[in-house]
């Protein structure tokens, strides 16, 4: 009697398929309208977000913090050391020129190192009990993409600081410059900073979350983030303003407040990602 050797193979394949996350990394199985085709990469499509949505994300983040307080505080202490080091850098440099680039760089690089907290929020979303060990493993889900993106942001930070140094050449040479003498310096500095902030924010606001969960390449993640910001401009302006305000509050407290601010911002970023980036199946996490 002939034996069907394909039966066992089929069972294995079915088991592997069922084992995949419901928000699988297998992007090749997605329908054509799941992507927005851009010139340099595919972008996963996004939802339309209300302008007030960022406040809701923060409220949900506070709830996540209370559900996993110990892990949140551990990460909060770790992350508070980063801005503390930046404060020391500013004092050692003895110049105000590095304050703005350092503040913005921390606000944008921070989410890359918040991958562990994204994992905590993801575990809560799935109804699991998050652990510190599991969150550490998440940093290696997509190491090439995640660390490559971290390097990209660091390069942007260095370029920003170099541009700030060049703009400083316009600073008046008099000991007590008048406002009229400062106009050129302030105008060019403000415009340049605003443009750089907008570009880096658009490229980074959803990229780390996408690369961690879906394991896509860096170009797909960046294109998806940019597309989502472009289509939800008003909500993203509110979200960027909240990020900046909370980061400034953290620095104003000599980095102590970052113990609470960084976990909350990380959880809120996860909720922002869930609410904005589309999945094949409807996805809610309240």
Describe the protein's architecture and organization:
The chain is mainly alpha-helical and 286 residues long. It has a two-stranded antiparallel ribbon. α7 packs antiparallel against α8. About 5% of the residues have low confidence.
List keywords for this structure.
286 residues; mainly alpha; two-stranded antiparallel sheet; 12 helices
Q: TL;DR?
A:
By secondary structure, the chain is mainly alpha-helical.
**Looking at the structure, what is the overall shape?**
globular
Strand order in the sheet with the most strands: 1-2
Would you count the extended β strands for me? 2
Q: Please give the share of residues in helix.
A: 55-70%
Structural class assignment = mainly alpha
Q: Could you report the average pLDDT, rounded to the nearest whole number?
A: 79
Roughly what fraction of the amino acids lie in strands?
under 5%
**Biggest sheet features:** 2 strands, antiparallel
The tally of helices reads 12
CA(first)-CA(last) distance: 56 Å
SSE pattern, N- to C-terminal: HEEHHHHHHHHHHH
Uncertain ranges: 15-29
Compute the gyration radius: what is it? Answer: 22 Å
Produce the secondary structure layout.
Layout (H helix, E strand, L loop, with lengths): L5 H14 L15 E3 L4 E3 L8 H15 L1 H25 L5 H15 L1 H11 L6 H6 L5 H25 L11 H26 L2 H8 L3 H14 L1 H20 L5 H19 L10
Antiparallel strand pairs: 1-2
Helix pairs in contact: 2-12, 3-4, 3-12, 4-7, 4-8, 4-11, 5-12, 7-8, 9-10
């Amino acid at each position: 009697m002939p034996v069907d050797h394909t039966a066992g193979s089929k069972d294995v394949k079915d088991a592997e398929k069922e084992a995949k996350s419901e928000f699988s990394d297998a992007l090749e199985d997605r329908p054509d309208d799941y992507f927005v085709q851009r010139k340099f990469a595919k972008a996963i499509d996004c939802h339309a977000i209300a302008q007030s949505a960022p406040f809701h994300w923060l409220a949900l983040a506070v709830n996540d913090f209370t559900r996993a307080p110990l892990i949140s505080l551990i990460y909060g202490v770790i992350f508070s050391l980063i801005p503390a080091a930046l404060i020391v850098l500013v004092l050692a440099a003895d110049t105000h020129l590095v304050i703005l680039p350092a503040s913005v760089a921390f606000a944008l690089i921070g989410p890359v190192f918040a991958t562990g907290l994204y994992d905590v929020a993801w575990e809560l979303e799935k109804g699991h009990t998050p652990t510190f060990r599991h969150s550490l493993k998440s940093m290696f889900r997509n190491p090439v993409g995640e660390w490559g993106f971290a390097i990209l942001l660091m390069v942007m930070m260095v370029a920003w600081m170099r541009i700030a140094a060049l703009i400083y050449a316009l600073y008046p040479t008099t000991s007590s410059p008048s406002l009229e003498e400062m106009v050129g310096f302030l105008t060019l500095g403000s415009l340049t900073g605003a443009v750089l902030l907008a570009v880096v924010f658009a490229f980074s606001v959803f990229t780390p979350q996408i690369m961690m969960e879906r394991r896509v390449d860096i170009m797909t993640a960046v294109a998806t983030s940019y597309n989502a910001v472009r289509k939800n401009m008003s909500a993203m302006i509110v979200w960027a303003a909240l990020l900046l305000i909370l980061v400034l509050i953290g620095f104003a407290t000599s980095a102590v407040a970052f113990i609470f601010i960084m976990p909350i911002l990380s959880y809120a970023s996860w909720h922002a990602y869930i609410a904005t980036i589309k999945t094949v199946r409807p996805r809610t996490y309240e």
